[in-house]
Amino acid sequence: MAEPALPRGTFVLAVNPRAGRGRALAEAHRAADLLRTGGDDAVVLSAADLDTLVTMVRDRLRAAALSIRALVVVGGDGMVQAGLGVLVELAEQGVEIPLGVVPCGTGNDLARHLSVPLRDPVGAAGRILRRLDDPVPRRLDVGRVRFPDGRTRCFGTALCAGFDAVVNERANRWPRLTGPGTYLLAVLVEIVRLRTVAYRLEVEDAAGRCRPEDRAGVLLNVANTSSIGGGLPVVPGAREDDGLLELFTVAPLGRAKFLVLFPRLFSGRHVALPSVRIEQVRSVRVAAPGVTAYADGERLGPLPVRVDVLPAAVRILA
């Protein structure tokens, strides 16, 4: 009798067990079953808290880097952010491991941008398998946030540092709600506290020219991809592989005018409004009193921060 074939490699699936109202762990195992059909193994890693999970993933990838086919994150954009942080760290050490995404979170904005099937773990896993042998691998730029104390965080979608961050914080308090409806409801709750923020910016534009600038606004977003909040295309023309970020700001508006602008965000028609400004940048330092930055829906910390881009930092199986 012939011996069974040994696995060619291993997919490591990192799952946030609380994502998708508790569905994520079951969906991770469904995705793992499909990933094994090509002759590879698939290991599902989960933990009660994110720090423990990140440590488990990092140790597993380091210990068996040569046999890892991909890191597959199962969850929302916050889970993707954690995975990107590990992969960027390993890439800096000369170890490259591709990233796959099985979306199972609230926003899933990176998955939306990359056209990964939503609410379909088997379809998402099938996409990963088909992209393994692409002759021209797809690359993902990664945003990097640097704090004055030396801490850094990576992100895949966008950093928010205005009304959008306040809304994000409100939406995160409602874990039972998902998708753009959560974001819309949070907007309606927070609109009564809409305020203008006085930003101090240091911008390096796409041509490498640097300038300081004072800019007042109600929204500020440094975007790597097109949407936030579960599908709101704030920067509909953003590309994930152009080596640049998009600095998106909205000038001071009263509540009435803001409520006129907001519905246009759902279709991308806001970009034509005179209050909206979008420009490509290589990096930007953002400072403002009393403002907390968010990225990929996760709370990062108070401004100031410097945001730059790591071009083509991660291979993405999407």
TrEMBL record:
Cofactor (UniProt): Mg(2+)
Domain DAGKc intervals: 5-149
Keyword field contains Metal-binding: no
Homology family: Belongs to the diacylglycerol/lipid kinase family.
One BP annotation, GO: phospholipid biosynthetic process
PANTHER family to which the protein is assigned, alphabetical: LIPID KINASE YEGS, SPHINGOSINE KINASE
Organism taxonomic ancestry: Bacteria, Bacillati, Actinomycetota, Actinomycetes, Micrococcales
Molecular function per GO: ATP binding; ATP-dependent diacylglycerol kinase activity
Source species: Kocuria turfanensis
GO cellular component: plasma membrane
Pfam families, sorted: DAGK_cat, YegS_C
SUPFAM superfamilies reported in the protein's UniProt record: NAD kinase/diacylglycerol kinase-like (SSF111331)
Protein name: Diacylglycerol kinase
Keywords, sorted A to Z: ATP-binding, Kinase, Lipid biosynthesis, Lipid metabolism, Nucleotide-binding, Phospholipid biosynthesis, Phospholipid metabolism, Transferase
Xref: InterPro entries: ATP-NAD_kinase_N, Diacylglycerol_kinase_cat_dom, Lipid_Phosphate_FormReg, NAD/diacylglycerol_kinase_sf, YegS/DAGK_C
